[in-house]
Amino acid sequence: MSPFELLGLAADADERAIKRAYAQRLRATRPEDDPQGFQRLHAAYQAALQHCRACMTGELAASFNPPMDRSVLVPTRSEPLPAAPEPPTLPHVNPDAFCTAAFELAAAGDAPALQAWLAGRPELWSLQRKAHTGHALMEKLYRQVPPMPADCLATLLRFFDLDHALAGHDPLALLQLERRTRLAWQLEVADREVLAARLAIRSSSQRRRAHWIVRLLMRPFRWPRVLFVGMNSANAGLIADFVDGVSDNHPEDLPAAINRRQLAFWRAAAERDRVTRPRLILGGARSAAMLLLGMLLAPLLSQWFSGRMSFQTMLIAIGMLMIPSALWALWMAWSLLVSWYLRPECMTARRSVRAYLVPALCAGGVVLGAEGLDGFGLVLIAPAFWLAVRRYWYRHASRHALLRSGHVRLMSLLAIPVLHGVLNAGRGGELVSFGEIIAALAMLAWTADLRKQRQRSAEAG
Question: 155 and 198: one domain?
């Protein structure tokens, strides 16, 4: 019987098929249970490998069937079993201790040293033990996510023959594992230089800022520290940009040392498209700090400018400090109004209030304008116009490339005074006011949006 027949393979089997067949038969032929059967199987495996490699180098013909020593033949009833030497006893493998040692060596970042260490482990000379240890290693890799660079992870996978699609990996899960182990390694204190090189951080100030952000994200979430850091309105954006750059826009892959509450808070505080709770908290804290500063400066300034500045003038000067906070509060209120008005219909319970908000504001503004209060009327009409146009743009203009152009939007605003001049030309006075024109355009956008909503409802029904 040839070595290939003993392994259950054809004579033209490649090296990978030989290794796979040998590993499968090792499950039933253990060295400790059947030493002689293991010796025959191992001899057949070596002979098949020798023949396969010789055929690839051209030393043997492709159809050559290599002879086999009689000591590896399966014995028959008439032929006694030849005496075989006892196989060497391999050291016992402790998967937990082995994985711990391998992860510690991989964390050093020296892939050639890791490869040499793996090759010198005698307990892995048995393919069965090697396969079992490789599966245990993969389980611990996914569960623990130890820090290591990408080349060390590739060395581990290649040594245990787990670096190909036939190993049963999920490609996306393996890609995530590589990213998570690399991030855990780069965010360690000793390996921040590698992170700085990857992010192209060259100046010392950028390097200190990166280290400060990492330390902040690794600390427990404490409100005093968070509010103190948030006093600088630029810090939230800096932290969010750093997190996105480090994780390649996958913050969920950051190591467990990163405090998840810190991470979620600063990413939400950096959002500009919607009003979030962290944004409101930090903005309120800044406003309270400005108010407290004004209250502390008031008596000092009063004493300093005693006799030279009136108390009323001093209060006006202190009140100037609150202008940024007041503008911020108005902007937050406006953002909340816009997000509420643009919300899908099914997500709000008071559809009637939102549906008739624009007509109500336009009607109130026109009435105030008719009473001679044009300024107060524009305060109602301008938000109504912006809400109606913004909602139409948000829901329907995405289908038309022309409407998405910024030049078209600018020309639309410039058309208002032109239309005002055309309507009042030769009238001897102002027949139509700016407020009435803006209210008419707002109602036009509101009517167009309502018409398209009804068309979609009819098509869906």
Answer: no
Report how far residue 120's alpha carbon sits from residue 110's, in angstroms, rounded to the nearest whole number: 16
pLDDT of residue 320 exceeding 50, the answer is: yes
- Its domain, for residue 334, covers 282-339
- Residue 329 CA to residue 323 CA, distance in Å, equals 10
> What is the count of structural domains for the chain?
5
Nearest to 43 by CA among 79, 1, 10: 1
CB 213, CB 242: distance < 8 Å: yes
Non-local (6+) Cβ contacts of 231 within 8 A are: 285, 286, 289
pLDDT in tens, 141-177: 999 999 999 999 999 999 998 887 677 778 888 889 9
Using the Cα atoms of residue 137, residue 139, residue 142 and residue 143 in order, give the sign of their dihedral: negative
For residue 57, being part of any structural domain is answered with yes
Concatenating the DSSP letter of every residue in 388-444 gives HHHHHHHHTGGG-TTTT-HHHHHHHHHHHHHHHHHHTTTSSS-SS-HHHHHHHHHHH
- Domain shared by 387 and 308, yes or no: no
Q: Which residue has the higher pLDDT, 180 or 454?
A: 180
Separation between Cα atoms, residue 42 and residue 49, nearest integer Å? 11
- Dist. CA 252–CA 337, nearest whole Å: 31
In CATH, what number is assigned to the domain containing residue 17?
1.10.287
- Is residue 86 in some structural domain? no
The string of pLDDT tens digits covering residues 58-112 is 543 444 444 544 444 444 444 454 444 444 555 677 889 999 999 999 988 889 9
For 431, the token pair is 């027949």
Among 226, 249, 270, the domain-final residue is: 270
pTM of the predicted protein model: 0.61
